[in-house]
Structures are given as C-alpha cells and as structure tokens.
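Sample log: Sensor histidine kinase inhibitor, KipI family.
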Amino acid sequence: MGAEAKPRYLPAGESALVVEFGQTIDPALHDRVLALDAAIAGARFEGVNETVPTYRSLMVHFDPGRWTMQALAEMLDRLETAHSPRAAPKRWRIPACYDPPFGEDLAEAAAILGVREDAIVAAHSGALFRVYMYGFAPGFMYLGGSFGGLPAELQISRRATPRPPAPPGSLLIAGGQALITGVAMPTGWYAIGRTPVKTFERRRERMFFADVGDEIVFEPIDAATFEIMSAAAEAGDLVAREDTLQDSNP
C-alpha cells in the first residue's frame, strides 16, 4: 500500500488549529484522528488546552501566547508520524425501542427507502457502530459503521426541511450516519426508535459514558421495558451494558 496522505492544517480563529485527514467517513481516517489525539494527550504540551476529535479531523485548541499556528502545525506534523496507539475500544450494548410511539419516523423512512419497517429495525439493531464524535448539542453521539458505511436499509438522505424536536434518546438516521440525541432538538434526520440511555448525564462520574472510538450495538426492547429502564435511567442508572469484548459478535 502507498504512503498515507499528509494531513492539512487549517486555522480556526486565533486559538485553534484543525488537523484534517480526509473528506470521508472512514474508520482508517478516524483511527488516525484518534492516534494523534492520544499522542497529544501523552505528550502533555504546555499551552495545548483541549482537543476535539471528529469523523475525519482533530481540532486543537491552544494558547496563542505560547504557540504560533506554524509552530504548532510543525510540532503536530512530527508527532502525527509516530501514530501513537490508542486504548482498545469498549463495546456498549444499548437498549432500543422501535415500537410506537418511539419509532416516530420509522414508517415514513421505510416508505422512502422502499423496504419494510422491520428491515430497518433489523439493520439498525444488527449493525456494529463506532462512536465517531460528539457534537452539535450536549450528548449528541454521532455514529457510523464500525467497518465502513451503514447498511443499505439505513441509507436515507436528510429531510428538505427540519421536523419538530426529537426527544432525548432518539435514534436518528440520515446522510450515511446514525445518531443518538442528548437533548430535544428540531432535526432533518429520521427518528426510527428511542433508547432510555442518557448519553449525557451530569450526575454520573463519567458524564459521557462512551468514548469516541468505542463500539455500539443496539438491543431491541419493547415499550413496557423501555418505561421501566427509563425510570431507572432517571434515577441515575446507566442502563447500557459494557461488553468485555470476549463476545466478538454484535
């Protein structure tokens, strides 16, 4: 195989630099993002305040009194070539209810895609997802295929106009991505189910329970179980289950 393409360094205001590795949703690109993120964390550079990983880039917030854009880019370029290994990902099993009233847009999405509703549910609950980033609003967990794109049954374009707010925990699909919402927001995506799991919870020691790079599997539950687990989540329980990864099957 040929050498990996060099990243681009893009200023983002006066105190942030974006290191861009590509233009697509690709696990290999994301691995490079996470490798650089881990290398920066390990190096503990003074004046580098925060890093924000995304699908294909890493934003580095820095103190402009300590770094110039050029000096930081040069340092990161040298650091990136080391490809520091990252910690092994965790796999989370997340309960998901696709039954009414939680799969609000499931029938509409199925009609647009020309498939049965249960085909969408089977594809979503049968896929192995990767947490690519958090963004847009607190706890918005952006997911893509762990080993490539999403299944064909989940490939739907975004709406032309946003729909009314989707509640927290909504399971959304659009534009080759999947998402778990953290707060209620209007959206151009399709809500096909809901989870009682809180992706963002101030009362927990780990407010964001899953790390970027972790894996997600959705496990179908019925509406009655959703209500029971939702009450437990409101009381502070996580209700998601962490695998040991000894079970390699989704």
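Observation: The CA atoms of residues 35 and 84 lie 5 Å apart.
Observation: The chain has five helices and 14 strands.
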